[in-house]
Amino acid sequence: MGRIRAEAAKAAQTAAQTPAAPDGTVCPSCGASAAPGVKFCPECGAPLSRQSE
């Protein structure tokens, strides 16, 4: 359990430090910015959900 909390804290810190991509796409898993239209995070590979159009 401690490892999960540590990883969540690290992800939250990364998200706070990482500026959002121009279109606002940010990985929900690691907080990295992603280019418009990509389906997976370039940092951790997590699937990126699309916003309702």
TrEMBL record:
Biased composition (Low complexity): 9-22
Record-linked InterPro entries: Zinc_ribbon_dom
Domain Zinc-ribbon: 27-48
Region Disordered, residue ranges: 1-24
Name of the protein in question: Zinc-ribbon domain-containing protein
Organism annotation: Merdimmobilis hominis
